[in-house]
Amino acid sequence: MKKKLTAQQEFDIMKLVLDKFLWLGFAVMAFGLYKMLTSTFLDGFTWIAVGIIVLVLFMIIIVKEYEIIK
After folding, report:
1. What is the pTM assigned to this prediction?
2. Is 8 a domain residue?
């Protein structure tokens, strides 16, 4: 038999998982900055663009999963 999670427990688990996406996106962008300084501009910019894509995916997951009230 499976246990059911409360909304708060589900949100806490989702925060832990999505926090890893934030760190991953930041790390990829930092690596892109490093490559931009040590290698070609285009090579570094490509890595930064990949980091941006990861962060946009993070944003889409949050908006789809939880209702954001303004």
Report:
1. 0.69
2. no
